[in-house]
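Changelog excerpt

This revision adds worked examples to the README so contributors can see how folded entries look when concatenated. The first example is reproduced verbatim below.
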Amino acid sequence: MLRLLKKLTATTPVPAPAEPVAAPAAKADSYALGLHDAVLSGWFNQQTDELFKGFVVSADDTVLDVGCGDGGNVHFCGMRGAKIIIADIDGAKVEATRQRLSDTPARDIECHVSDCNPLPIADATATRVVSTEVIEHVDDPAQFLAELVRVGKPGALYLLSVPHPSSEDLQKDIAAPEYFQKPNHIRVISEDQFKAMVNEAGLEIISHSQYGFYWSLWMLLFWEAKVDLSDPDHPLLNHWANTWQAVLDSPRGLQIKQALDAVVAKSQVIIARKPVA
């Protein structure tokens, strides 16, 4: 009997208990993660009322956003009770932003559909001027910036951003050709060129920073994924978002993010002031 049992157990070993299978990780939301990454970079600080680090907005301000896009920036400002003026060449975006602002305590909302050449706004109107990711699209940056300066009050703060060349260089052989054609990115602006543009417009630069490694890599993968931007569901993008979430959740996640932002950044941001005299 013992021989038989040994024989049977030798030829048909009892299987070991199966290892528990881990549940698949939840898919990170690319856009929600991008917003979280932006907050870590200094955007949308609700505790300090800074739209971006160093750019405080209060109910006393008149905020002009030129090229308002989806309205995220002015929604933050509207929640501070500021007067809001928006201008964009796309009438649908202006209307969508107007509706988005309707649930804020903004003390007034003024909307313009305009190519901003010139701006339909009186001289010395705004105490805060915002224009993010617009200058790379316009035919004449000097003329565009001159208009922004004209409508700001003496002492007004300016929040300006353009794509960083490190990210643009990363995209140049991968992006769809129209990405670098009118009306999209018709110029790549270096750090020195950006600072010179702002200085030559008559503004005093307060800070110049960069952020957005996450978005730089996301956009690179987006071109390969060939999905709709409104529903970017693809393994390449989902895995990247999950990886970046894991990086941010790690003990030195913020330090790693800052190191990578310094190497490849989606955007460069200047805060400047219009001289009082």
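The second example, added in the same revision:
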Amino acid sequence: MNYKIKDLSLANDGKKQIEWAEMHMPTLLEIRKRFEAEKPLKGVNISAVLHVTKETAALVKTLKMGGAEVALAASNPLSTQDEVAAALVTEGISVFAWRGESESEYYNNIESIVKIHEPHIVMDDGADLHAFVHEKMSSELKVFGGTEETTTGVIRLRAMEKQGVLKYPVIAVNNAYTKYLFDNRYGTGQSAIDGIIRATNILLAGKVAVVAGYGWVGRGIANRLRGLGARVIVTEVDPIRALEAVMDGFDVMPISEASRIGDIFVTATGNTKVIRVEHMLNMKNGAILANAGHFNVEIDVKGLKESAVSVRNIRPYVDEYVLQNGKKIYLLAEGRLVNLAAAEGHPSEVMDMSFANQALAVEYLVKNKGKLQNKVYNMPIELDYEVARIKLKSIGVQIDELTEEQKGYLEQWKSGT
């Protein structure tokens, strides 16, 4: 087995972390029981680019117990939990990941899990693996399907589909209701704040917090910040989302105005250069910048470095930039995902649903091999409902069922008042 990690001796610590995660992931473990008995993924090679965390380990183990051979690389240079990577290697997983990879090492690791593994299915978080497969690999590639975990990746894949270059069907796991309504909102909402607090140990109550973007991630972050006593401003380019933020009780204004009054800034847009040098020059002395979007492009880090007269690391994941006007700006986690770089990522209970969707999406691709077009598909709604039902059962919640009369009523059109 090929692998490249930081330190195999960390495996015992990693196994305990994985055990802790699995205690809080009953939905995925219920699916694992069936996978272990039925082996629906037997003979399938899976290459995955995901955050190498204890929760991802629970997913990868489930896939392996379902019969798959799995190779794993990190979807972010700073998100790998090295003890988890070591533990997975001892479980027979080919892992190419360690915390603090350089950009070249990051892409070399992606290349490794494809070239040594010849995948049938690719799983991704951000679409870097999908892009590599399409740009670098030959037409003889054996891939017959893929999945995508995050909003940014789905946007990239839909662009590939629109341009007619997508070579295989992809399930947009991100678009499952039991993913984005919970993972994006509650998961990122809590974990991004966790990363900011761990990195800075600042008090949020009374601070002016600016959240760029009011998608599901932005909604979650804004509401968690408000819950901790911050005064929250939202910036948006989408008029409907901006209106929703207003109706939800937040102040809404352009970033050019918000930059003058914010104490903390969190980007969650999936777009590039949302906070630029022109905005940083307007900020208060001591302003804190954090990113919750997938790629480190939302804050213009390059521009910040070029504009700074000095840079120094103050504490782990906190870099101080002194601007030409004398103001100090504090950038968290190099502008990368603050929840995974400065903290542990989403709580296991949330990833339980996201990764249950991933497991079922892979099974769906295997069952429907050769039947799907080369396009991006939303998660089949019946699988979404299955995840929700298992999750509800695991937390002891029961719901009603439609009677036959009610089902009939919803399927006709003649009955009125």
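Reviewer comment on example two: The mean pLDDT is 96. The chain has 17 helices and 15 strands.
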